[in-house]
Specification:
The complex is a heterodimer. By secondary structure, chain A is α/β, with parallel strands linked by helices. Helices cover 40% and strands 18% of the residues of chain A. Chain A contains 13 helices and ten strands. Chain A has helices at residues 2-24, 37-51, 63-72, 91-95, 135-141, 170-183, 185-196, 208-216, 261-272, 274-277, 280-284, 312-315, 318-330, and strands at 28-32, 55-59, 81-86, 99-100, 122-134, 161-162, 222-226, 238-255, 287-288, 306-308. In chain A, strands 1, 2, 3, 4, 5, 6, 7, 8, 9 and 10 form a ten-stranded mixed β-sheet that branches. In chain A, strand 1, helix 2 (37-51) and strand 2 form a beta-alpha-beta unit. Chain A starts with a helix and ends with a helix. The relative contact order of chain A is 0.18. Chain B is an all-alpha fold. Chain B has two domains: 1-35 and 276-479, MetI-like fold; 37-273, MetI-like fold (Orthogonal Bundle), CATH 1.10.3720. In chain B, 77% of the residues lie in helices and 0% in strands. Chain B contains 22 helices and no strands. Chain B is globular and about 70 Å long. The chains are: A alpha/beta, B mainly alpha. At the A-B interface, helix 1, strand 2, helix 3, helix 8 and helix 13 of A face helix 10, helix 13, helix 16, helix 19 and helix 22 of B.
Chain lengths: 332, 479
């Protein structure tokens, strides 16, 4: 018994010390969706090196899941700054007063790249969401690649399609926004319900990483996901249908109750600097928002013929859509 | 003098009273935050009805499975440890094994019922077998001698088994009503109220949907607690002079049911043959053990304070057990999250929550051993040494091996726990169980396979601890 309590006392001391350090130490905690982990770690590492501080990246599920966690923890967040906040799901952070709006001006980022007029969320990167498919697998099945959303409802694609779960994933919510923008709400829901019958056995992956993994393994042949799968060496057989795509823009923001707010603002400046933006393409397969930033991987990114941009008028409907999707599509 | 005694008694009641207050405070915080009102929509009503229906179906099927297993338990006692693996393994490991065994069927509405029957069927069999062995031998002999028709004999035996049948049906109903991990792993298509609290509190934190669930969740789980206080426990397991006779046909049917459990157990552990993600497992495993070792030691302290309170005749520890078993864990986790906000993201918050949830369970394990100590010996001890010294010096010595057993069970419970782990930890401080659930629900083939390995490893750890606890065979004060 004495040994048990002795070990417990030591462990409690360790946990208390860890908790104390976590809540008081002067360091920057960057939070972001799992799918952006490589960029998050690279930014943290480079920021630490340049500013002589201890910056750490913490992955937190999908982008939508992360936004909800930021809301849930708004009074006492264990993080300082968030990256990967989607353009189509950021207003909730403003309404719930989760963010600090520093209103700083950053040179070198074109004005048209800023999508939050209140100056709370700063643009970080962008890319396209559309139809992507495994060219080799389709050829093996003797199927023509799908070009439009309606093509996905054809009987030959039954059991081959997927898109990420919009309850947790930013990519999934982008798909919902795209479908609703293109088809209108009523027709959009009808389309999604019909699409539910075409979904592959893996179901709706929880986020970008899970979708990429399903594509890599060939468990899914057609997906509503990132065009970047077509230039990702991990998914070499993937191609993109370029007739239409949705422009996905994501940003970086300081949390209002951050314990290191000044450092977090410095991080935002760094993420939008040339040095920070140079990390976007190699580590995130996304397009940087600065025209002078380095682009290597995305040189081969498929270009959509028409681009659907986010309609702010639909923005307030994101939670209503997610709830309806949870009940009517996921719940059957 | 009498006044002094009553003051002394009140002093020893303070620790369990404090504990009960700490356990119930998160619920009051939720009520204060969201208000005590019912806001139900058609979907919520559907979820409520489904939760109740699946709990009733699960209890009925568990009873059927349990009764089918009883003949094998009586004739071939060596099958018991194997069939009990799904019950003692973490729920996520058993569900994961069932998904691999039955495929898409498990994602349908009956998947949750089958999963519950697989966990709880062997538990029901244990309770019924214990009751069966308590039937007086002369009654069984008289039935054998004077009742010719097998159906009439069965009727007599079932009349004797009524307490066990009622008790196990009701407890399985409660466990199934409060099910969380099972519907989560089964895709969330058929959620229970417990799961809906989690979904609304985390994935829909941007809305106030969870507010409508607080009162409903509390009312329904409190309604479950009340009968639990009144329902009589089945007779204790006392070996009968001779085991009840089991014919070859019931034994064969029972062995068939047992064979199914062997297949399930194989599926629980088979991912261990293909280790994956071992490097990434180290940190969550360390976190799990750090929490489990600290929480289990705190549990022992709480347990001793409960015994002190028990020794002065307080019923508070028993009441605390009923409250903690029947109240919603998801709502507790949500309330605790608000209560201990500054600690969110650290392992201390999880340690504290585990202590509150596991301590009453540990008390329920030690209580029977405590009651085996002769009452006059207990009274003499309390009279001469006082409750505190009696429990810490004499009783803890007498129950030492039982306390070690309970400590091991508490560690295993902490390792297996998922509801609190998912709601109180962040990606930076995940436990092994939370990490396994995240991987298994990701729907990414590679990650799911890693999740299979983690869930099997977790099952192995939990069961090894429970097996170790069974190696300790103290007489006469054993669990």
């Amino acid at each position: 018994m004495a040994a048990v309590f002795a070990v417990a006392v030591i462990l409690v001391a360790m946990l208390a010390l860890q908790a104390y350090q976590q809540t008081t130490e002067k360091r920057l905690i960057i939070v972001g969706p799992q799918g952006i982990s490589d960029l998050g770690k690279a930014l943290a590492q480079e920021f630490s090196r340049r500013y002589g501080v201890n910056a750490t990246f913490v992955p937190l599920g999908g982008a939508v899941e992360m936004v909800n966690e930021l809301v849930r923890n708004k009074d006492n967040p264990p993080w300082d700054v968030a990256i990967g906040i989607p353009e189509f799901y950021y207003t909730v952070l403003i309404e719930r007063e989760v963010l600090y709006c520093p209103g700083v001006k950053i040179d070198g980022v074109p004005a048209e790249e800023y999508w939050d007029a209140r100056g709370c969320v700063y643009p970080l990167d962008k890319s396209y969401i559309g139809i992507v498919y495994n060219e080799t697998a389709l050829a093996r099945l003797g199927l023509r690649p799908p070009e439009t959303l309606d093509d996905l409802l054809r009987p030959e694609y039954k059991g081959l399609v997927t898109y990420p779960n919009p309850v947790t994933s930013g990519t999934g919510l982008a798909v919902l926004s795209w479908v609703m923008s293109v088809k209108g709400e009523e027709e959009g829901w009808r389309h999604l319900k019909q699409l539910a019958g075409q979904i592959a056995k893996v179901g709706y992956p929880s986020g970008f990483t899970a979708t990429r993994n399903a594509l890599k393994r060939g468990d899914v042949v057609v997906a509503l996901s990132w065009f970047s799968h077509a230039i990702d060496p991990g998914t070499p057989h993937m191609r993109a249908a370029t007739s239409s795509a949705f422009l996905y823009r994501e940003g970086v923001a300081v949390l209002k109750n951050s314990k290191n707010r000044d450092l977090a603002v410095e991080f935002v400046k760094f993420a939008l600097s040339k040095e920070g933006q140079d990390l976007v393409d190699p580590y995130n397969y996304m397009l940087p928002v600065r025209p002078d930033a380095k682009i290597e991987n995305n040189k081969g990114l498929p270009q959509p013929q028409s681009v659907v941009v986010y309609n702010p008028a639909l923005g307030s409907k994101a939670d209503e859509w997610r709830l309806r999707w949870q009940r009517e599509i996921a719940g059957g | 003098m009498a006044e002094g005694d009553s003051r002394r008694v009140r002093r020893y009641v303070i620790p369990p009273l404090f504990f009960l207050s700490a356990f119930t405070l998160p619920y009051f915080i939720l009520l204060a935050r969201y208000g005590a009102f019912l806001r139900v929509d058609s979907y919520l009503l559907w979820v409520f009805a489904f939760t109740g229906a699946q709990a009733a179906a699960s209890a009925a099927l568990s009873l059927a499975v349990g009764l089918a297993l009883v003949p094998a338990y009586v004739r071939f006692p060596w099958v018991k440890p194997v069939t009990l693996v799904p019950f003692f393994a973490p729920a996520l490991s058993t569900v994961d094994a069932l998904i691999r065994l039955h495929g898409d069927f498990m994602y349908g509405p009956w998947g949750i019922v089958v999963a519950h029957a697989v966990y709880y069927g062997p538990y029901v069999a244990l309770v019924v077998e214990s009751n069966l062995r308590s039937i007086p031998a002369d009654l069984l002999e008289a039935a054998d001698l004077y009742v010719r028709r097998a159906t009439a004999r069965l009727r007599i035996i079932f009349a004797e088994l009524r307490p066990a049948v009622l008790y196990s049906f009701f407890t399985v109903f409660i466990f199934s009503f409060l099910s969380f991990t099972t519907p989560l792993l089964l895709g969330g298509r058929y959620p229970t109220l417990e799961l809906l609290v989690y979904i609304y509190a985390t994935s829909f934190a941007s809305t106030d949907l969870v507010a409508g669930l607080v009162s409903l969740g509390l009312l329904s789980s409190a309604a479950l607690a009340l009968p639990l206080l009144r329902i009589p426990a089945p007779p204790p397991a006392e070996p009968a002079p001779r085991a009840p006779a089991v014919g070859p046909i019931p034994a064969a049917i029972s062995l068939g049911a047992t064979a199914y459990f062997f297949v399930v157990v194989f599926h629980v552990f088979s991912p261990l043959l293909a280790p994956r993600g071992v490097d990434a497992m180290v940190q969550p495993l360390f976190n799990s053990f750090a929490v489990a070792l600290t929480a289990s030691a705190a549990v022992l302290l709480v347990l001793l304070s409960f015994l002190v309170s028990d020794s002065v005749g307080s019923r508070l520890p028993a009441l605390t057990y009923v409250v903690t078993v029947s109240l919603s864990k998801s709502l507790f986790a949500l309330g605790f999250f608000h209560m201990a906000q500054p600690l969110y993201g650290t392992l201390l918050i999880l340690t504290a929550a585990h202590t509150l949830v596991i301590a009453p369970l540990a008390y329920s394990l030690v209580k029977p051993a405590w009651e085996k100590i002769r009452i006059d010996a207990r009274e003499a001890c309390v009279l001469y040494l006082g409750p505190l010294k009696c429990v810490t010096r004499i009783i803890s010595e007498a129950l030492g091996p039982t306390l070690v057993q309970t400590w091991l069970v508490a560690i295993a419970s902490s390792l297996s726990e998922t509801t609190l782990a998912l709601m109180l930890t962040t990606g930076g401080a995940a436990t092994l169980s939370a990490e396994a659930v995240r991987l298994l629900t990701s729907r990414a083939p590679d990650l799911v396979e890693t999740g299979h390995f983690y869930s099997a490893a977790l099952a192995l750890l939990a069961l090894a601890l429970l097996a170790a606890s069974r190696l300790i065979k103290p007489r006469p004060y054993s669990i």
